[in-house]
Design goal:
With 149 residues, this protein is α+β, with helices and mostly antiparallel strands. It is built from five helices and four strands, in the order αααββββαα. A hairpin with a 2-residue loop joins β3 and β4.
Length: 149
């Protein structure tokens, strides 16, 4: 078995949630299916949204609006929030992410910084919202998503 090259989760707390305080990471459909098991992705998404811990967000492109799911931000009452820039993820604690290994794919793709005065490195750079929006669109129409609350 090949040893993981990823640093331990405890190393992620070195930055004290630098990224998590600015914007929650984006979930892939597989993240939601794993966190909210159900017969269909639609049911998993419904469970995620009604949990009030995840929301449907969007990114406007020249080709239309793309939708994706991310964790809720702290101190928000609404289930769907479109402006979360500069607000921190509800799963951020002093010890790191409450979700541990189940944190959103965008977060798992971050390369933790090596020095206290450095930032984490995003493999997706500024393309995450568009990439995840396109990924979600291939699986489910979040723009017209309806669920029983």
């Amino acid at each position: 078995m090949q040893k993981s090259k990823r640093p331990p989760i405890s190393q992620c707390r070195l930055c004290r949630g630098f990224c998590c305080k600015k914007y929650p990471g984006i979930c892939a459909p597989e993240d939601i299916k794993k966190l909210f098991p159900a017969a269909t992705l639609h049911e998993s998404v419904g469970k995620a949204i009604t949990s009030k811990k995840f929301v449907i967000d969007n990114w406007e492109t020249s080709q239309g609006i793309l939708y994706f799911i991310r964790p809720e931000i702290a101190n928000e009452d609404e289930g769907i929030t479109y402006d979360c820039t500069g607000r921190h993820c509800i799963f951020l604690t002093d010890e790191g992410c409450k979700l541990g290994e189940n944190k959103p794919l965008e977060c798992r793709l971050l390369i933790p910084r090596k020095h206290v005065d450095a930032s984490c490195i995003s493999k997706l750079k500024h393309y995450a919202k568009e990439l995840f929006g396109r990924l979600w669109r291939r699986h489910i129409d979040l723009g017209n998503f309806e669920y029983a609350s």
